Amino acid sequence: MTTLAELSDDFTSLSEAAIDHLVRLTASWSLLADLSFSDMVLVAPDENSGGHEEFVVLGQVRPNNRSTLIVDDLIGSVQPSSQWPLVKLAFEGGKRCVGEVSIPARDGAVPVWCIPVRFDGRVIAVLVRLQGPLRGPASLYEQAYLSIFERLCSMVSDATFPYREDTVAGPGMPRVGDGIILTNGLGQVEFATPNATNALHRLSVYAATEGKTLTEMGLRLRVVERSLEYGIPAMEEVDRSHDVSILFHCVPLFDHGAVTGVVVLLRDVSDLRQLNRVVLNKEAAVREVHHRVKNNLQTISSLLRLQARRSDEHDTVVALQEAERRVRSIAVVHEVLSREPGEEVVFDEIVRSVVLLVEDTVLALHPVEIVVNGDLGTLPTDLATPLALALTELLTNAVEHAFVDFGGPDNEHVGVVTLDLSLEGECAVAEIRDNGRGLEDDFNLDVATSLGLSIVRDLVRSQLNGSIEMTSVPYSDGGGTLIRVVVPTELAS
Ligand SMILES: Nc1ncnc2c1ncn2[C@@H]1O[C@H](COP(=O)(O)OP(=O)(O)O)[C@@H](O)[C@H]1O
Ligand SMILES: [Mg+2]
């Protein structure tokens, strides 16, 4: 798609400031199209043709409240001025030219206005308006819309529209159909559309509107005054209790340099604000759920700890302690999620808690240093829990087994366990390395029946679709055990 700026560069010799003026005009002109129920195109002489023999279409907009008369995309097309005599007349004469044209989509003639667009004292383009058929005679409101439109057209030719400060139409902004109030130069209401009246009712304003200012009607807002005083567009939102929010957008009207009125576009944004609140509430609810899950898991782990203390059997004590540790490592993930609920979780925070947990449970028995390098950024939450549990098992094993009977009590050997985390392509990679005694010669991960490694195997291979390798590092390379876990970061659902 070609932009207005690109077309202006290619076809015209307009200055940057002039092009900017046209860009701002087209950013605001859906207001004009809606007020006049018309299709609009913006044209300028094609300088390549020499003189004003051809005109190029720089922009096109359709009304939101009527069906269009121009089905084709005209942007970038060039027309000989013999086809568009009124355009040429308006451009050269600097005056609005009104007439009729016949267009392919319609039988019979269609009213057309050619409005010169002035900037810096010079006509730089022509705004062409093709008016669609009115449904019967114009209603009171349609007449009012058209009269506002006419005033804005004069402003286009006087270079007071578009505004320098702000655009007055666009996503999220009130549109003509949402409701309009027109005030005079004193801010007194001249008329209000039914939608505007409804919006005022929602703010508990039932007084007759005509002849009064919005402030006199009991509305506490400053935008109308601000618009009148400074001659700039301005927006303000008015809330009543918790559930009603109305957006007021004021567009000043100029006549020969003086502000003579304000068009107030109103939009009921209550549903939108409500929705925001619901989303916020939902987030709080998710947070709360994680918080409760975490609390429940902590309760379970306390129960297991109590039970372990009451047992005389060493094996039972160990089994219960391990179960407790596993429950706590799951709680860690919910703890992090209760602070930052979402589809993704910062895994770094989980790693930190997991390391603290391992230090807490086994380091008292085996003074070993745990070093973490790198991080995995944010990971999907469904991946975080199994991965956290697997890392807890593997780190615990390293601390628990690697240094048993290794070196003897007088040995100077300092036990170090490193956890290296990195992302390789679409995979998260965790390498756990210790400088301990290494694995038994006949060790085989695939046949290990012990609980810890069975859990890890199941988590990494079945749940996470990943792979795990455990190898003894040759003594010449520092010895110990190296475990490499690779899991895809996008879980196939
Ligand atoms: N880093 C390691 N260094 C040496 N041996 C290990 C290491 N990790 C695991 N092992 C061996 O693998 C065995 C199985 O581990 P695991 O399944 O977690 O059971 P448990 O920790 O309850 O003994 C351990 O008993 C230990 O002999
Ligand atoms: Mg273990």
Q: If you had to describe this structure to a student in words, what would you say it looks like?
A:
This protein has 493 residues and is an alpha+beta fold. The chain has four domains: 4-158, GAF domain (Beta-Lactamase, 2-Layer Sandwich), CATH 3.30.450; 176-268, PAS domain (Beta-Lactamase, 2-Layer Sandwich); 270-342; 344-493, Heat Shock Protein 90, CATH 3.30.565.10. It is built from twelve helices and 18 strands. It has helices spanning 4-11, 16-28, 30-35, 85-93, 140-158, 194-202, 223-230, 270-310, 314-339, 347-362, 381-401, 451-463; strands at residues 38-45, 54-61, 78-80, 97-102, 109-119, 122-131, 180-184, 189-192, 234-240, 244-255, 258-268, 344-346, 369-373, 378-380, 416-424, 427-434, 467-472, 481-488. A six-stranded antiparallel beta sheet has the order 3-2-1-6-5-4, sandwiched between helices. It has a five-stranded antiparallel beta sheet with strand order 8-7-11-10-9, sandwiched between helices. The radius of gyration is 36 Å and the shape is elongated. The mean pLDDT is 89. It binds adenosine-5'-diphosphate and magnesium ion. Adenosine-5'-diphosphate binds next to α11 and α12.
